[in-house]
């Protein structure tokens, strides 16, 4: 059922090769006609390529190259690298073509659930009345239409008639409603008004269940992310407080938020302090203390306190509003299997008409022919797929995971390669002091740390913050100091009493004539543990060595093990950090390989290179430097409370919290969803095929044919709805 994603679309392979000449095939070229000239220019500028010509008809590139500078494999890789930059263009063009080929159906969300319930009540009541007081229809065709069952069926089927006729008039192709309309009219004309009502009743029940699932999905997202306030208190220019509608707020306004209220803007706290529950945005379990200068987000809740926030982003520009918008757009991002289901259902519709004609010609039985119109594949296939994918997105949202389209669920279920960023993803992104080594017996751990804190107090470097955090949490007093100096790329210094305190790198110590020979071995041991080594000296004497480390996330190793159990066989570390630290993290996490000291564009190139070999790639990251790779990956996953807005918008799946176990949980959910879709396909096709066979030989009457077909549709929709109660923690 799985479709071909960007990785398969842009896969390149050599179809024919001679010395100095190779023809490379790439299916994505069929969709890149507007870019053919640019692609040829890019290829002609590559090292070793003498000339390249593009054929979008055959989806090939004919390359003449210098055999002394490379072989067929080298040229194929160069072609793949160039075409990889156009992957998104090809993917969008292919998707637009598939959508154009898809039969246009009524959108279930267009009709309120209350209207569907009313229709079900009317249909059920009329059907029950006709069973209790059966009567023979009046003679003649007109008489068959002039009874309660027939008139009710025809009046309730008006939306179906409109949709069916529109499909024929506008798109020149029948859809499921065309078939249903034909079956209803034929049933009534044959004097089978009850069969027509049964078709409408069971179809409405199936659509109600599907609409309910989609409504639950939207509600789960709204509950999780809504700002929740219609009016807010704003401070006017004269200092007075005024109650205004949320919609009139603008950037720069000062907004008051009190205990129990939701913050309504993204901005910076100007005054006051409060405990803020940020779980909806960052996933942090405990409320966070916010005071002047701290950043706050719309949709977070004041648990206690009062703050005045100067608005930076309001309305649709807030982080929460952008998330809601992106998720609401998910309805237009169909999975390949969903598009395939729509196409299959459309292709089966003419078959039903043809079967009806064939059965009528060979048997002369109108009732048997009518069953060929009543028993169709399209409803079960179409509704069950949409319901399963929508239910999965709903369940994920309730667990703090935002999936921006059902296509990403399908792609995730097919993936076998996962790339992880290091800082902020595998690690906490918050360096801490992990080792304190006193190299002079005159000084204790406390004295070494306090000297370092004095020098680092004015610095905003992450390692300085780690030192200051350790000292403040321990309740130690930072000594008075003067003359702080920053030595670029080396370290910092300050004066405590009459002594100069130096804190920084080995090079800084050596340039300051501080002796390090006695501690070289110990410093190397600290470095081999993946810690950054910071030297602390008083005057010309080394007082101690501090090891600072970005701690690995709790449960991350367990998360990777679970991913392997789910079928992920290639886990890669991709980081801008130095080689030594990358190697240590990769070894601790038992990762398959790593790439260190890579820039953001190089991360994206790595993703494209893997995709060009036909590998579906999942990228997990949190920062601005991960955004290009997140965007290019088949599935980009942004996670962690430290993730940036840019990473969140570039990603296809956003995990609100800091729990690494949510990564395999989402992967497991995607696999279970696709398994249920396959079950639904098999059930819908199998049961309806059996019904058509029984009806064609006269074993199955028209009424029971309607019951069989529509009951099957209801059954597969109910099967899909099981995903609404899926437990993401246990996977059941």
Describe this structure in words.
By secondary structure, the chain is of the alpha+beta class. Among the domains are: 6-100, Alpha-Beta Plaits (2-Layer Sandwich), CATH 3.30.70.100; 231-317, Distorted Sandwich (Calcium-transporting ATPase, cytoplasmic transduction domain A); 428-552, Calcium-transporting ATPase, cytoplasmic domain N. It is 49% helix and 20% strand. It has 28 helices and 24 strands. Strands 5, 6, 7, 8, 9, 10 and 11 form a 7-stranded antiparallel β-sheet that branches. It has a 7-stranded mixed β-sheet with strand order 12-24-23-22-13-20-21, with helices on both faces. It has a 6-stranded antiparallel β-sheet with strand order 14-19-18-17-16-15. β16 and β17 (499-504) form a beta hairpin. α9 runs antiparallel to α14 (366-374). The longest helix has 35 residues, at 662-696. The protein is globular. The protein starts with 5 loop residues before the first helix and ends in an 11-residue tail after the last helix. Mean pLDDT is 80; it is low at 1-5, 101-110 and 326-332.
Total strands: the figure is 24
Give the helix tally: 28
Report strand %.
15-25%
Helix content: 40-55%
């Amino acid at each position: 059922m799985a479709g071909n994603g960007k990785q398969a679309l842009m896969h390149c392979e050599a179809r024919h090769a001679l010395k100095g000449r190779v023809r490379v095939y790439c299916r994505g070229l069929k969709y890149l006609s507007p870019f053919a000239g640019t692609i040829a220019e890019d290829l002609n500028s590559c090292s070793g390529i003498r000339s390249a010509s593009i054929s979008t008809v055959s989806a090939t590139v004919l390359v003449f190259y210098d055999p002394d500078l490379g072989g067929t494999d080298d040229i194929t890789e160069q072609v793949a690298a160039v075409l990889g930059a156009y992957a998104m263009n090809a993917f969008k063009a292919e998707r637009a073509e598939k959508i154009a080929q898809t039969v246009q159906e009524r959108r279930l969300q267009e009709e309120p659930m209350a209207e569907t319930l009313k229709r079900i009540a009317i249909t059920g009541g009329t059907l029950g009345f006709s069973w209790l007081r059966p009567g023979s229809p009046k003679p003649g065709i007109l008489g068959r239409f002039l009874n309660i069952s027939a008139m009710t069926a025809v009046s309730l089927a008006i939306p179906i008639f409109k949709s069916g006729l529109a499909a024929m008039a506008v798109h020149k192709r029948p859809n499921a409603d065309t078939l249903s309309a034909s079956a209803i009219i034929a049933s009534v004309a044959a004097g089978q008004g009850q069969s027509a009502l049964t078709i409408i009743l069971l179809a409405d029940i199936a659509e109600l269940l599907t609409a309910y699932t989609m409504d639950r999905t939207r509600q789960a997202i709204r509950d999780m992310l809504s700002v929740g306030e219609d009016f807010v208190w704003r401070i006017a220019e004269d200092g007075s407080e005024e109650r205004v509608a949320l919609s009139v707020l603008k950037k720069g306004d000062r907004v008051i938020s009190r205990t129990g209220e939701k913050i309504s803007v993204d901005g910076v706290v100007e005054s006051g302090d409060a405990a803020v529950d940020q779980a909806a945005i960052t996933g942090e379990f405990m409320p966070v203390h916010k005071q002047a200068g701290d950043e706050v987000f719309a949709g977070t809740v004041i648990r206690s306190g009062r703050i005045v926030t100067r608005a930076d982003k309001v309305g649709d520009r807030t982080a929460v509003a952008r998330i809601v918008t992106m998720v609401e757009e998910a309805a237009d991002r169909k999975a390949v299997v969903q598009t395939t289901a729509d196409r299959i259902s459309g292709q089966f519709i003419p078959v039903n008409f043809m079967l009806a004609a064939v059965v009528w010609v060979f048997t002369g039985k109108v009732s048997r022919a009518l069953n060929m119109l009543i028993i169709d594949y399209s409803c079960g296939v179409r509704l069950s797929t949409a319901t399963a994918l929508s239910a999965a997105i709903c369940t994920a949202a309730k667990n703090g995971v935002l999936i921006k389209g059902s296509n990403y669920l399908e792609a995730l279920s097919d993936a076998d390669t996962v790339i992880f960023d290091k800082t902020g993803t595998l690690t906490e992104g918050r360096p801490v002091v992990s080792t304190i080594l006193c190299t002079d017996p005159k000084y204790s751990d406390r004295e070494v740390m306090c000297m370092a804190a004095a020098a680092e107090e004015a610095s905003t470097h992450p390692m300085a913050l780690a030192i200051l955090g350790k000292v403040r949490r321990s309740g130690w007093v930072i000594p008075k100091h003067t003359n702080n100096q920053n030595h670029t790329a080396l370290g910092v210094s300050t004066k405590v009493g009459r002594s100069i305190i130096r804190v920084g790198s080995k090079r800084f110590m050596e340039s300051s004539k501080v002796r390090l020979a006695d501690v070289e071995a110990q410093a190397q041991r600290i470095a081999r543990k993946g810690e950054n080594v910071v030297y602390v000296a008083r005057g010309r004497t080394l007082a101690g060595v501090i090891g600072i480390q970005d701690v690995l996330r709790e449960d991350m190793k367990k998360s990777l093990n679970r991913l392997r159990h789910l079928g992920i066989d290639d886990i890669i570390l991709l980081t801008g950090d130095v080689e030594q630290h990358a190697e240590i993290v990769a070894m601790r996490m038992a990762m398959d390989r790593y790439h260190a000291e890579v820039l953001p564009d190089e991360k994206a190139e790595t993703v494209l290179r893997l995709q060009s070999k036909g590998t579906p790639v999942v990228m997990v990251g949190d920062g601005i430097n991960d955004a290009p790779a997140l965007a290019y990956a088949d599935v980009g996953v942004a996670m962690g409370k430290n993730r940036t807005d840019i990473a969140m918008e570039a990603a296809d799946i956003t995990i609100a919290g800091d729990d690494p176990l949510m990564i395999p949980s989402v992967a497991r959910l995607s696999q279970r969803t696709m398994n249920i879709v396959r079950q639904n396909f098999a059930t819908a096709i199998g049961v309806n095929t059996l019904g058509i066979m029984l009806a064609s030989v006269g074993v199955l009457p028209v009424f029971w044919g309607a019951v069989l077909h529509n009951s099957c549709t209801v059954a597969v929709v109910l099967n899909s709805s099981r995903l609404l109660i899926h437990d993401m923690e246990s996977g059941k």
